[in-house]
Each structure stands twice: as structure tokens, then as C-alpha cells.
Amino acid sequence: MPTYIYETIPAKGKKAKRFEIRQLMMDVALTKHPETGEPVRRIITGGAEPFLRELTIERPTPPPPKKSRFDKKPRPPEGRPTHYDHGDDHEH
User: What are the pLDDT digits (tens) for 14-42?
Assistant: First the structure.
């Protein structure tokens, strides 16, 4: 369940107050503070940026791609039999 940030819409000369509330994504945005009844608006943020401005988040280097088991294997040099070779030079 996501956490949303709301801000009160203050009367002239007053400061806005921010608060967080957990809601389902399908819930309608609040229009009033759940405790005080003050009018509020939902604040759209870029993730944790407003609270963690000084934190640098680095992504790890992705691992190299794995080789597929379907990749072609190098062929042995010509004239050298492989374990699949059942040529005439072998006795049965």
C-alpha cells in the first residue's frame, strides 16, 4: 500500500502543514485532513527526493549477460574427430 503526502491549504497568513497517509491506489484523494477537517491537497513528488536530498542512490553495475545453453560451441579443427564422429578409422 503506497504512502501519499498531503499538504493543508492554509488560510491567508498561515503555513501549510504536510502529513503522510497510507492509502490504496484506487482510493480517492483526500480533500480534508482526517483529524482537523482542514482542506488538503495531495502532493506529487519524485519518490524519496524531498526527504532525502543529500542521499545519493547509486545503481549497481548489472551483471554480464549469461551465456545461453543454445549458443553455438566452437567447432573442432578439421581432421580431428569429435566424440560424435563414428568414422571408418575406428574398429567396431
Answer: 899 999 999 998 999 999 999 999 999 99
Strand order in the sheet with 40-43: 18-22, 3-8, 40-43
Give the DSSP H/E element, type plus range, for residue 40: strand 40-43
Backbone angles phi, psi at 32, to 5 degrees: -135, 145
Bridge pairing between strands 18-22 and 40-43: unpaired
26: left (phi over 0), alpha (psi -120 to 50) or beta: alpha
* pTM over cut 0.70: no
Q: Which residue has the cell 501519499?
A: 4
**d(Cα 59, Cα 63) in Å, to the nearest integer?**
12
Nearest to 50 by CA among 20, 15, 12: 20
6-22 b/e with 16+ CB inside 10 Å = b? bebeeeeeeeeeeeeee
**What is the DSSP-derived secondary structure letter of residue 59?**
P
